[in-house]
Specification:
The protein is an all-alpha fold and 138 residues long. 76% of the residues lie in helices and 0% in strands. The chain is elongated.
Length: 138
């Protein structure tokens, strides 16, 4: 392997690691927001919809699993594909919720899903960077 190819792989591996650590940090903040009911955009995708506190605590525990997964993926490259797959599932899942009749039923008249789509795009961007950086670093 040439030194430029090795350098490129190292660059993408560094991007992958940075994205995993950043993602873990983001998910810590998201889990904390859900646990304490702090409804802030980006930390709480559906921040302005009705909710039940017990549901948000369940979400907080599930998001904590993402933290463990991402941190583990920084330690073992064999785990990275699972982190990537989980993010694709999340991105697709949020997209399906955004177009669902169930969400439409809880929106106020005239309320749009633009903010939810923007937040889904953030999750999708993390997903894209993780995907590209993983494959470019192989």
């Amino acid at each position: 392997m040439s030194s430029s190819a090795a350098s490129s792989k190292q660059f993408w591996r560094s991007i992958n690691q940075l994205t995993l650590y950043s993602g873990a940090s983001y998910f810590v903040a998201m889990a904390t927001a859900h646990f304490f009911g702090l409804k802030y955009p980006l930390l709480f995708v559906y921040y302005d919809t009705p909710f039940h506190a017990y549901q948000d605590k369940i979400i907080a525990f599930c998001v904590a699993v993402y933290v463990a997964l991402f941190v583990n993926a920084t330690q073992s490259r064999a785990v990275v594909p699972t982190a990537v797959a989980s993010m694709w599932i999340t991105t697709i899942g949020l997209s399906l919720v955004n177009v669902s009749d169930d969400l439409a039923k809880v929106l106020k008249p005239g309320q749009t899903t633009t903010a939810y789509w923007l937040q889904t795009a953030v999750v999708g961007a993390i997903t894209a960077v993780l995907t590209v950086s993983y494959f470019k670093s192989k």
